[in-house]
Structures are given as C-alpha cells and as structure tokens.
Write a structure and sequence with these properties.
There is one protein chain. The protein is mainly alpha-helical. The chain contains 23 helices and no strands. α21 runs antiparallel to α22. The longest helix is centred in the N-terminal third of the chain and has 78 residues. The protein is elongated. The two termini are 24 Å apart.
C-alpha cells in the first residue's frame, strides 16, 4: 500500500532529526506520529499487510506533510501521484475481476437452474401419481364401509378391503423444492401452479437466448411471485454488450421491472435499486428516477443518494432536480447532514437552517461538513448567529480558523473583514465573547492575516489580544514555515 511510504518506523525517527530542524518542525512530526498511532488504534488497523483504512489515514497525513514542505514539495507530490495511480489501477483490476466472477457465476448457474426445474417437475409428477394411488385406496375403503351398512348380519371386519388392496397405498415423502412456500402441502392447485412457473421460466430463457431482450424484460416484469426479479437475472441483462438499437438490454430490464405493478409486493433490494439508478443516469434518463422515487419503487441507501447527488453536481441543468431527489433519499436513510447539504446547494439556506434546528441531530463535525461542501457567506452567517431564537451552533472564531486551515482562506478572511467593517469594537466583542476559540487560536488567526497581507485585520486582533491578561504582549510570527506548521498541527490535532 502507498501508506507504507510513511510508516510508523520512519516517523519514529522524528526524535533523531538534526538539531538544525526547527522546534516547530519536530513538534509537528511528533504530533503526526501520535495522530497516526491514535487513528490506527481506534480503527483497529492491522500492523502489517495492506489495509484500506490505514491507507486513507496515511494518505491524509502525507497531504499535510506535502503542504508543510517547501524544498521537496514538488517531488513529494509526484511520488504521491504515482502511488495513487498504481493503487487506482489495482482497485480497478479487483473490480473487473469481481465483475467477471459474477458474470461467470450467472452463466454457470443457468444450466443448473434448468436441471433443477426439470428435476422438480419429475418429483411433482411422482408425487401426483402417489396421490392418485392413495385416493383410489381411500375410495375403496369408503365403498367397503358403505356396503357393510347394507349387510348388518355380516361381521364388521369382513367389510374391510382385501389386504393386498390396501398394501399398495404408500406415504408421500417430503421433497426439497425451489419455492418452499408453494409446495408444503398436497394442494393439487399448487402443483399445477408449479408446472406453470416452470413453463414461465423456460419461456424467459428462450426469449433471452433468442436475443428478444425487450420481450424477455417484460416477461420478467410480469412474472408471478417475482421469481425472476433477482440479481442473477439482472446480471444476465447487464452482461449483454452487443445489441441492436440505442437502448441497452439492462435499461429495458429496469424500465420494465420498475414500472411493473408486481414490484409493489416484490420491490428490488438496495443493490438492484442502485444498479437501476446508475443505469438510468448513464443514459441520462433522470425522468425514470423521478418516477421510481415518486412511486416508491426503490430501496433507499446512502450510496444511492450519493450517486444522484454527484450526477447533479456535474449536470448543472439538472442540479436542482437531483438535489431534491437526493434529499428525499438521504432523509429516508436518516443521513441528515447530506439532506441539509442538498438544500444548501440549491440556495435554500433558510430551509436548511430550519431543518437543522428541528432535527436536533447535528454535531460540530456535521456543521464543518456543510462548510467544507458549501462555504458560502450566507451559510456561515447563519451558523455563527442566532436563528429564530436558537443560539449559534458555533463561534465565528472556530469558523474562521477552520476555513483558513482547510483551503478556504479567502472565505475566512472575508468573514473577518465583514465583522471588522460592521463598526468600531465589533471585532473586539467577537473575540472577547468567543467561549470556544482560545486567545492562542485567535493569535493563529492574526498570524494568518498578517501573512496574507490583511494587515488591518491582524493589527486589530493583535490589539485586542495584547489588552488581555494584564497587557501581556503576544507576538505575531511572520515566518511562513512556523505559521504553516502551527496551522497544520491545529488541523491534525
């Protein structure tokens, strides 16, 4: 894995770096080492061998190391790019292998399934013969009893049928079945139904093998008891790559199945629902997804919501529609932060804030998630101020510090400047009333302002800070490396 390029053993060497290293650099590296140890232990990552979670942890830390580097930044970036391209190739190879395995399994199961149906038909025929024999024996017994009532003088035991006539009556064994709910009793009606189902399945195989994919898809959609509405049949349509016309057999399958009335009782599972949505979006058939969600023909999942959201994020004309659909999915799956994000992406900040306060399920991480995906000034103002009598969810200082530490520097500085321009003493009140952001955090903000040439902001923050704690002077560093190290440490820890 790429994470082994920055192993814990290498990080142990942070204690043996030359004395020429600055104290901030050594502290940063030691904190990174502690951060790696804590994260890998909490996630239960193995110490050796490839592991996806461990790779993600090391990848994020490697990004921070690259951001903090100066002389070796380009070469480290190139190394990271080569690692990631190699890992992506390995992931794609694994996905292709799984696809081929599923395809092979589907093709291999077809003859076995047909053999099972034929075997079941033979078993049912034998069962029917036994039922007929038992029925004949019982009718003979019944007739003998009737005759005995007409001859009262004869002993009752002589009215019984001959021994050899009874001996041929045999018990009917229990038999394995493909659909247990159909064959657990001796109802001849269900036996006839089983023969009908077998014929229905054979008809589907014939249509599919004759490449009549649309007819085969309609056959699946109308199948009794949903016996053909499964992943194996879907994989058969998915495996078809050569066909006539512009509509793929897989899309014909989903159009027919999702539009069938039988799906109300036999709705597709999460896997098939996701495949159907991905197929429809691949063919730009957003109208199908609108109908499927409106008619409740899908099994919702967070992944399904992500697929719709990502499609809307790339198709600007369909963005609002996709955000509304994704919001429905996320809300059904109780993924509240992504449901609120969909509203924010459509410009419905007020609706998102109402949703946030009514749900009462949002944490600080959820709010920072919204800022990372939608760092708009309006959203930040709403999150850092009272809303319809509800207190602000977090302070201006925390918002600014997070923004300037996560590639949203201009948004953070703009927020500070708005406070500074709003009147004399406004920035001082923000700093002094901030119960979440410490004076040291505000000094970090002042340092960042100074580096980015927001000198007026830096001087104003500096003035407020030096007036605290008995007039203690707090220096504002202008060293790029030290400032970058401190901001990076704040993000990591």
């Amino acid at each position: 894995m790429a994470s082994e390029g920055l192993s814990p053993a290498a990080l142990d060497k942070c204690q043996t770096f030359p004395s020429s290293r600055s104290l901030a650099d050594r502290n940063l590296l030691c904190r990174i080492r502690a951060h790696l140890k804590t994260e890998t232990e909490e996630l239960g990552c193995p110490e050796q061998g490839p592991d996806e979670q461990r790779y993600i942890i090391y990848k994020d830390v490697f990004d921070k190391v690259i951001d903090n580097a100066t002389a070796y930044k380009n070469i480290l970036t190139s190394i990271k790019k080569e690692y990631e391209e190699t890992i992506n190739i390995l992931h794609k190879g694994r996905e292709d292998s799984l696809f081929l395995q599923r395809k092979l399994k589907s093709m291999a199961s077809e003859p076995m399934t047909l053999m099972a149906y034929k075997k079941r038909a033979s078993q049912l025929q034998n069962k029917l013969e036994l039922i007929k024999q038992n029925t004949a024996g019982l009718e003979a017994q019944l007739q003998a009893v009737k005759n005995s009532r007409n001859v009262k003088c004869e002993p009752a035991e002589e009215t019984l049928p001959p021994q050899d006539e009874v001996s041929h009556i045999k018990s009917i064994p229990e038999v394995d079945s493909l659909w247990p709910e159909l064959f657990d009793d001796n109802d001849p009606g269900k036996i006839n139904e089983s023969a009908y189902l077998l014929e229905y399945v054979e008809r589907f195989h014939k249509l599919f093998n004759d490449k009549q994919y649309k007819a085969a898809a309609m056959h699946v959609a109308n199948c009794p008891r949903g016996i053909l509405n499964n992943l194996e049949v879907m994989e058969r349509f998915k495996a078809v790559t050569e066909y006539e016309g512009n509509i793929s057999p897989l899309l014909q399958f989903f159009e027919a199945v999702m539009g069938s009335l039988s799906i109300i009782k036999h709705s597709p599972n999460a896997k098939m629902s996701l495949e159907g949505v991905e197929c429809a979006l691949k063919h730009n058939r957003l109208d199908l997804i609108i109908n499927w969600i409106k008619q409740q023909r899908l099994t919702y999942s967070e992944t399904l919501g992500d697929v719709i959201y990502n499609y809307g994020d790339t198709k600007l004309r369909s963005k609002d529609t996709c955000m509304a659909l994704a919001q429905i999915v996320y809300n059904k799956c109780n993924v509240y932060k992504k449901a609120a994000l969909c509203m924010c992406m459509c410009g419905q900040i007020s609706g998102a804030m109402t949703y946030i306060h009514e749900s009462k399920r949002f944490s600080l991480d959820d709010y920072l998630f919204l800022l990372s995906k939608c760092p708009s000034t309006e959203l930040i103002q709403c999150l850092t101020h009272e809303w319809n009598g509800n207190p602000a969810v977090f302070s201006t200082g925390i918002a600014v510090l997070w923004l300037i530490s996560n590639d949203h520097k201009e948004v953070g500085f703009h927020l500070l400047k708005e406070v500074y321009d709003s009147g004399q003493g406004a920035l001082e009140q923000i700093i002094l009333n901030d119960t979440h952001c410490t004076l040291e955090d505000w000094q970090d903000i002042a340092d960042a302002c100074n580096i980015q040439n927001y000198n007026a902001l830096a001087d104003s923050i500096f003035t407020v800070l030096t007036s605290q704690e008995g007039g203690t002077v707090i220096t504002i560093t202008t060293d790029d490396d030290n400032d970058g190290a401190r901001l990076t440490e704040h993000v990591l820890l």
